[in-house]
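Hi C.,

You asked whether I'd gotten around to modeling the 219-residue construct. I have! Everything is below, sequence then structure, no commentary in between.
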Amino acid sequence: MTSRSRPAVTPRQWLLLAAAAVAGLAGGAALRLAQPPGTDIGDRVDLAPLLGDRVSPASGPADAPVTMVVFTDYQCGPCRASHGAMTRAVAAAGDVRVVYRDLPVNGPRSVAAARVALASAAQGRYVAVHDALMRAPLPLEEPALRRAVAAAGGDWAAVEQGLAAPRALDDQLARNAADALRLGVAGTPTYLIGTRRITGRMSERDFLRAFAAARATPY
């Protein structure tokens, strides 16, 4: 090395540089973990009709401080994978109202399952049927739909009456699709939790962080 060359980095300096890099990565990861999931769209979209929806099937306290609007498809893998985590998180939180917006984007079987779920609402069984369909083995053909209704304590004959006059069911699905488009939904599952739009598989921790953010910034 000539007298004008830069001095070699000593082992101690390498260790310090490595430690700084690790600390930076850890700090970035911690910052990401501290941020609630998703994108805040409260200043871009009028969310009042969605968060204040009293027409779609729903569960939880009507005056809950947190409202979560759920766009799902019963044959969507990530929807099904997130369902248990969502159920546990909602139970743990205790102050979340869930509004269910069926968005069957995966073909005729998805549409048929969504119609069955909506038709079960007349019996007060929508939420139970929703849960049963999310847990049912695929594919969701008619025998599986019948079993899901039975597992939820519903009456299949009553569901068939609703399916025989599908206009109201299809109108609801069309409204769901229109609202999803307005919200910028790019796929299922998508969750609107307070003012944050979140797409993709979620863990129980993700849901709880999103609930906390919604409580901190009420719409």
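If it helps when you're writing up: The chain has nine helices and six strands.

Thanks,
B.
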